Amino acid sequence: MTNDLSQTAQYKLTHTMLRIKEPARALEFYEQVLGFRLVTRLDFEDARFSLYFLQPRGHSDQSDGSLEHAFSAMGLLELTHNWGTEDDDSTMHSGNSDPKGFGHICVAVPDIAAACARFDSMGVTFQKRLGEGGMKEIAFIRDPDGYWIEIVQPDLMEGLLAQHKA
């Protein structure tokens, strides 16, 4: 096997997918709480599922809604709804309880204290509040399906790492 990494120079991570139960509830959360915008919706009638591609408004590379851009733009969140799950008693697994797996997505904000105050005023569920635990400079919120979203302020990360070096 050859290992010519130059062949991967154009590879890029485009999206992360989360399964959701109720599209309206999930879309409201990601659009209203985190400011994402829906850029593409794809419905697959025969397979009975829908894909919702969302993009944070702060991204300079704004998706134009085309399929090509939805599958090539970086930093998209894909929400997948399997039709009928909104009416059954299943729950989505965040990956943070046994069996552990997926952990979280992360959103960077310019002012974490202001963002957390806003989340609080909107009734958002916190997994970990700012100032709690060993890593006091980060927070975790949960979306309506229980997925964890880490909230960070990038200019605080060096201080955070310096505190935790042995």
Characterise this structure.
- A hairpin with a 5-residue loop joins strand 7 and strand 8 (148-152).
- The longest helix has 11 residues, at 23-33.
- This protein has 4 helices and 8 strands, in the order βαββαββαβββα.
- 19% of the residues lie in helices and 29% in strands.
- The model has no long low-confidence stretch (mean pLDDT 90).
- The protein is globular, with a radius of gyration of 18 Å.
- With 166 residues, the protein is an alpha/beta fold.
Main sheet makeup? 4 strands, mixed
Helix content: 10-25%
Query: What percent of residues are in strands?
Result: 25-35%
Broad shape: globular
The ordered string of helix (H) and strand (E) elements is EHEEHEEHEEEH
> How many helix segments?
4
Category from helices, strands and their pairing? alpha/beta
Tell me the strand order in the biggest sheet: 1-4-3-2
**Nearest-integer average pLDDT:** 90
Low-pLDDT runs: none
N- to C-terminal distance? 39 Å
- The tally of beta strands, per DSSP, is 8
Q: Kindly provide the radius of gyration, computed on alpha-carbon positions and rounded to a whole number of angstroms.
A: 18 Å
Which descriptors apply to this entry?
alpha/beta, four-stranded mixed β-sheet, single chain, globular, 29% strand
